[in-house]
Amino acid sequence: MSRDITGRMLFIEGENGEPIPVSTSNPIPLGGGSGGGAVTTDSITDATATGKALVKATDAAAARTAIGAGTSSLTLGTGAGNAAAGNHTHVMANITDLATALNAKTNKSAFTALTPLADPATSTTAQIATLLNSVVAALKA
What we know:
Elements: E1 11-13, E2 19-21, H1 49-56, H2 60-67, H3 98-104, H4 108-112, H5 125-140
């Protein structure tokens, strides 16, 4: 009888659900299916044409072609119907109402009320901590 790596006996399920011990004289059947023979991509009955083309692809370029990647008709540009280039940037002035929205989120009066350190190089730890706590409070306001 054959045993797995833990020493347990190996069984396969018979036609009627009965356990059949596996041995060198009764190996696990590996053929399966009806008729046997080689399995080809085209013989996979539940695969789509795209799936079969992807399996048959010989390199990455062929795989991209199989799934239609890189076939876009978009052109790069700045028009409404164009795609933006990967290195494009946005100037703050070109983003509608961004400055107004950001300014509305900042309580400037809380910051203007802060008293800066007279000389940061000679300020004490307590003075710096007090100012830092005031900045945090202003940010939360």
